[in-house]
Design a protein that fits this description.
With about 220 residues, the chain is an alpha/beta fold. The protein has 8 helices and 8 strands; from the N terminus they run ααβαβαββαβαβαββα. Strand 7 and strand 8 form a beta hairpin.
Amino acid sequence: MSTSKTRPFRRDEVEDYERRRYRGLDQKIVHNREQRILDRILSRVAEPADFPVLDAPCGFGRFSKFLLERATFLASSDFSPAMVERAASREGGAFRPRGVVADLKRGLPFASRSFALVFSLRFFHHVHESLDRRAVLSEFGRVSRRWAVVSFYRLNALHRFQRWVRRRAGQGKTRIKMMTRAEFVEEARQAGWRVVRIYPLLRGIHGQHIAWLRKEEKSFDSGTG
């Protein structure tokens, strides 16, 4: 998630966020685990000849290089122009992302079926209303030809307790939405997606789960998303 509660990140805030966000050992472990899971998924869906990818929200481009090494084209989209600028400065091989400013809750400025895969990590736990999550998933379905990779936070007593302790200590003030696996699967289904597989980040320890989604055949065939 690359926005504050009321406004996009400014350039100085982006620099500070990037500098401090993943410096701790725990976050480095999380990042490495995310990449291993994503590599497993993308190795099964990537198409060398034509594999355009949308990263939304892209944040400061934490996964830009990773995605550029696997995509034939990468669009990096975010609510914050400063985040888009930073993500678009990343390089991977001979390519750079195309930066696009957009608010996911208001729709994406792309034609239907523009991308082979839509990638969205660490966003849905900031979206507290089911209607909003389903709207975003539906929009992902509109611009995707077939695939999506989306993370959500599954109900986890230990992780919830850890966050409570951090809030009591004056850290981690952002409240996140945790949901059951069944809730996520149903919201995805209502938006036209079928869950291929859900990967726990750190089973029993961390609430984040990464879902590999495929568009339902009727949506894929019709091209309506």
